[in-house]
Amino acid sequence: MEANKQKPAHFKKVEDKYILTGKIFCGLCGNSMIGVSGTSKTGTKHRYYYCHNAKSKKSCNKKRIKKDLLENIVLISTLEMLKDKKLIKQIVNTCYKMQSDTSSVLNSMENRLKQIEKEIGNMIAAIKQGIITESTKTELSSLEAEKNDLQTSIAREQMKHPVLTKEQIEFWICRFQNTDITDQIQKQKLIDVFINSVYVYEDNIIITFNYKDGEKSIDFSDIEKIEKKKNSDNPNDYQSSPLKVIGGPSGTRTPDHPVMSREL
Ligand SMILES: [Zn+2]
Asked: 205 C-alpha vs ligand 1 centroid, how far in Å?
């Protein structure tokens, strides 16, 4: 708390948080786009993403783009993507496979444990038959000790890398379908988990999701369609939608561009 006193920026208004920072790039020059804001004569604050080159060196012609408009396009497209059941299955399978690849240490420990338990079983059978020597006793107690150690190590490893079932992974991913995009924390999390990068061109946006070949192109002329979709999905949530008042940026449009094409 003492440290935070020194940092007034920490208490920035939520509207001032640019949730795409670090993931958004200019389609014209490739440089990152940064959050900028300005206050109009009437005192209204306007927020934008602006190409770093266009702002600082004036070496790029990219126009700035309204923050709310762009963030909403990205959030809504991500939620659309999460409705694709086939795609979700594909992501779940990949995650599931990845975790089994990374837990090879655990596998070898579990195999060793099985082997020890078998050896202990054999010895106990021998003891029951009356075959007991001094070395059998020593060996048995050393096996028991190794078994105890292994069980502890396995428990530790499992805590480090919990092995999730496919159902658990699917549940975790599907929970994001209910993201409330009016909630700052929830929408930031959605972006953090699923968005790899966003490239803003003159008349379209390319969103790359965090899965293999997960790319989506959105034409600015499709924004109206996205807006309609939003209103029919959840009419109460979007009464003050910025998409309604802002409209698309100027520039050439391509009406025949496919609506949200995704190459898989
Ligand atoms: Zn640029």
From this structure: 14
